[in-house]
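Margin note from the TA: students keep mixing up input and output lines. Inputs are the sequences; the output is the structure of the whole complex. Example:
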Amino acid sequence: MSEISLVNNPNVGIDKTATGGPYVNELTTLNLGPTHPATHGIFQNILTMDGETIVDAEQTVGYIHRAFEKIAERKPLYQITTLTDRMNYCSAPINNMGWHMTVEKLLGIEVPKRAQYMRVIMMELARIADHIICNSVLAVDTGALTGFLYIFQWREFIYEIYEELCGARLTTNMGRFGGMERDFSPVAIEKINKVIEGLPKVLKEFEGLVMRNRIFMDRTQNVGGISAERALNYGFTGPNLRAAGVDYDVRVMNPYSSYEDFEFEVPVGTKGDTYDRFLVRQEEMWQSLRIIEQAMKNLPEGPFHADAPHYYLPEKQDVYKNMEALIYHFKIIMGEIDAPVGEVYHSVEGGNGELGFYLLSDGGRSPYRLKFRRPCFIYYQAFPEMIKGTTLSDAIVTMSSMNVIAGELDT
Amino acid sequence: MEKITNQQIIADLQSQFGETAIYGIGESHGILQVTVGTDTIVPLIHYLYQHSAFKFQFLTDLAGIHFPDAKGQELGVIYHLHSLENNVRIWIKAYAPIENPVFPTITGLYATANWMEREAFDFYGIIFEGHPNLKRILNMDEMDYFPMRKEYPVEDATRHDKIDELFGR
């Protein structure tokens, strides 16, 4: 119990006129975090409690701040990819590809259709992996461990697909400027098809366990709600905003990477409470499966990367035999290629909202300024408002359903 | 409904605020950008917010920036506004001297500006006048400098093979 320290704060909010014993209206300060199993990440909440009820909350963030924006001002563009996947490590491929698309916009590289479809498949798999974590852990926080164990094996399986494509599981560094670093292998295609076939069954099972479960519903309905108006004012994006009833989805509003080719629906909630957020994520997984299915079916033939020798690493065998390939290989690896002057904003629909990249290039090899719009940094500040007046156990569930990723929160 | 063009927005803003108040007009990959003085920020953003057609009611991001060579306008803030109804984005930029980097807060209009402004303060030392809780957010409270300013370069402390001169940089 070392993380939770109970400190009586006798000076705050005592109503001297109240009757009913010495402890009435005495407020308690409760430290939730920085390291606490229920916060799923390193951030602190200093709660002011009146008995069981939360009166006020103050957040402290930045415990794992790693100065990515500063580091990015020194790194060549391609090395920044590894920074992006350390932000939202639950859906790293989306971050990687968002960054790649930002740079491609700056460089004016046209990505072949096959690479775009491959990106869509990987991004949607990442979205499923992200939502599996959020929703199953939300169920765990309400006391249902079984569903989590059923569905988590599929997240593991999705990580195997990442492994097949880029060799890494968590910090993927997937793709390159101009496309993907390698085509889908037969094993990768087989595994993706296995997800399309196998996941629905498990997803249904999970929904059967949790979705209409009386205990789960009682714990999550009307808990941590936010109105559409407040959510917009707080800059909510992604499933959290859609749960409040606003159908803003970057994939639909500003389609990138051929999202306009696919048919899918944007689920919205009505109340913006924890239950709605759960339902929206659940439905998004079904929609993601739909997109993957369509993309696999219509996966175009052709090259899986653009012809951009200044930025796309040549084949290793060419490096040994071909002079130009050797030169480009050296120049790319050493970061000797200057980016054009320009100013770009590009955003993608990340696992938990609009993930934006503002890139200002002064013509050097690294950005002059790079600003990451991290969705959970922006919406996590609404947390005190959402939990005021509720109990501590409700606050835990609310935080869990907001899908706050500490790595992204702190860059 | 017809899509609002950047020209319409510019024409409207210039008729409202005068041609001298809105300058640095440009477009980058379809996103309109304007530069204004620090005293025009709040009236301009408020005007865009409550405008019956534009409705820039979503603050996407707020980024601080440092140009050490621009004398008198070293520190800047870039407001990324988004009109969700029209799906139009606009960047509003403003600059202030580094000796007195004071910007008005827009937390009254957008609750989300709270942490964004704290972040800009944390990394660039930009003061947002009227902010309810302007203190460091990601760095530790004891820090006595603003790390994203350009006078603090990132260095590879242990490496001597990447001397810029040797590479003609």
